[in-house]
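Protocol step 4 of 6: record predicted structures for both targets in the notebook before any analysis. Target 1:
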Amino acid sequence: MSIDLKPEGPGGDRLKEKKDAGTARPLPFHHRAVLLYAVRIAGFLFFAPAFLFLVYAALPPPATPLMVIRAMDGHGLSKDWVPLSEISPHLQRAVIAAEDGKFCSHGGFDWEAVDTAMQRLRRGGPLRGASTISMQTAKNLLLWPDRTFIRKGAEAYMTVWLESLLSKKRILELYLNVIEFGPGLYGAEAAAQHYFGVAAKDLTKAQAAQLAAMLPSPLTRTPVPSAYSGTIAARMNDVLLGENGPCG
C-alpha cells in the first residue's frame, strides 16, 4: 500500500506556483554579455588615467588633446621637451606665484579657492577659478578644453590619481612642457625661443613673469611688461625652491 503525498486540486497548484516564483532565474546570455561589457568599460575608465600617469611619470607625453584640437584649427604645433633642470627657476617660481601659490602644500585641490569659486557660481558668475597646477596638468594631459561640470568632475577625479602617483617635481615638469603659451606654442622652451630668442633655462625674472601673465588667456595675450606681470614678479620673491626642485 502506498500513499501519494503530492497535493492535489487548486491548493496543490498554488503551492507549485509559489515554489516556482521563489526560484531565481539566471539572466539571459545576451543580458550577461552586456553587463560584463559594461563592467569592463567602467573598469577601463576607472584605471586608464592611472596607467597613463604612470607612463608619463617616466616618459614625455607625445601630444595632448588640446594640441590636437588647436592643430586641427590651424594653429600649428611647436613644442620641445626639456627637463625641469633646463627650465629657469624664475619661470618655475613665476607660474607657481601666478597660478597656484599653495602648490607645495595642497594635495591637488585648493579648497579655499574652490569655496570662493562656488560662491561666485551661486551669485550667477562663470564656472572658473580654483584650478591648481595639478588640476591644470591633469586636464592638459588627458582632457578637452571646456568649462562644464562633466569636464570639471573628470578633472578632479584625474587630479587624485596624478597627485597619488607623481611627485610635485614631475607634475611641474609636465605642466611647464605642455602648457599653452600662444597659438601653436606649448611648453617653456618653445615659448622662450619664440618670444625672447633664448633657451628656457636662460629666461630672466622679468621675462618669466611676462610669460606667466599670459597663462589665463594665451591665445590673446603676449608677454609684455604690465601691471599683472609686475605683481607676479613681486609674488615670486615668496616662492622658494628646494635643492631638489620645487617643494624639495
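Target 2:
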Amino acid sequence: MKVTTAILENFVADRFRYAQGYTNCNESGINDLENRAYKEAIDRGMAPYLKVKGRPTDNDGLQNKGRGNSTSFGDNKQGAGKTYKEIFNKDYIESSKFDDYEDFLNAVKNGFDPRLKDLAGGVGSEGGFLLAEAFTEKIVDITIEDSIVMPRASLYGLKAGKGRTMRIPCFVDEDHSTKGIAGIEAVWTAEKAQKEKTQPEFRSLEMKVNKLVCYSVSSDELISESGISLNEIIGNAFKKSILFKTDYVFLQGTGTGMPLGVLNSPALLVQPAETSQTASTINYDNIVGMFSKLAPASFKNAIWVASISALPEMMKCSIEVGLAGEHIRILQEENGRFFLLGKEILFTEKLPALGSEGCLLLADFSAYAVLLKEGIKLESSIHEGFRNDLTSFRMILNVDGQTTINKATTLLDGSTVVSQFVALGAVA
C-alpha cells in the first residue's frame, strides 16, 4: 500500500476511534500487518493524551488481546524477534508518570514518592516497586535486540498474577523412518479405499520462570558529588547484567534454579574431534561434520556461535584448492559481519573456551523457547550500608528457557541422525 497524506489521516482517525472504544477501527487498514510500524508510531504519539479503556473489537469481530487477565498458550503464539508489546499482546502502553528512568530510580531510592504507589507494586517496605511498564518495555526490547538467543528464539509471555508456569505443546519428531513427520504419516490411498488413521505426537513442555536478581551498591557521595547520573551508575549496569546473564544461561544454563541452556539439552548432538587432532584447534573437517548433523529444516534459520577465544583458529581455517596448493579461508567477512559456510557466525565470551566441548555451536534457536514473566521489580535499601552512606539496589526479572525438542531426529534413511543444535566436542 502506498501511504499518502490522506491515508495517514485515516490511520490516525482509526486509532482515535479505537481509543474511544468503537468497534469498527480498521476502515483504513491500520491493523494490517504491513502497516504495523505506522500503527505503533501513531500510538506513541497519542500516548500522552489518551488512555485506552475497555476492550473494543476490530472489524473481524475478535477482541483485541492484551487487556484482559487471561494468559494462555493461544495468546502466546511463538515467534522470533518479538517486541515487549508482542510478547504480552499489548497494543498500547501508558506513558510513565516519571520524567525518565533516572527520575524513577531516584524515587525508589528516596522511597516516599507518591507516584510509586500507582505502580501496583506496594510500597518499599512490602518488597519493592514494579518498574513502570514504559521502562520495562525498553529494558526487555534492548535485551532482546542485543542478545544472541532471544531475537531468534520462540518468545512467550506470562501475565502478572498468573503464577510461574506455562505448558507449551510441542511436536514429538524423533524418527522419520517409522513414524512420519511428528507422527503424521501421509499415505497414498486409492479412490474409495479406507483412509489410514494417523495420530500426531505431542509432548507438554512445562516452563517455570526462575528469579534473576541483579544487585548493586552505590555510594551517596559518588552520586551527589561526581555529577554522574544514577541511571549511568545503576540503570545501565542492570540492563547490561540482565542481557549478559540471560544470554549466558540460554547457552550454558544447568536447568537447576535457572533456564536449561542449549549445551546441556538432551537434544544436543556433539561432533567429536578428528583422530590425532592437535589440542585446542578447529579444522575444516570439524566444521563439515557439524554441518552434516544439522537438521535440514534448520538450514534457513541456523547460525554459528563461537567462543571469542576460537577467533584466531577460525581465521586461520582454510581449504586447499588446485594443484598449486592455494588455500582459501572459509571464514568470510562482509561489512563487519562474519560468515562460515554461508551462515552468519557470532563470537562471544558466553561459550566455553577453545578446546572445550561447545566452544563452537551451530544452532537453530527457533527451537528454543523463552518464557518471560510480566513485570520487573526494583528494590532499594539504605539499611545494609547505612553507616557507610551506601544505598543498595536490586532488580528482579523472572524468566525461563529450554529447547522445544528433547531428542535428536532420525531421518528417513533410518541411520542419519540430526538435530537443531550441534556442538563441537572437546579437542584436548
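Step 5 preliminary note on target 2. The longest helix spans residues 230-252. The chain is about 25% helix and 25% strand.
Proceed to step 6 after PI sign-off.
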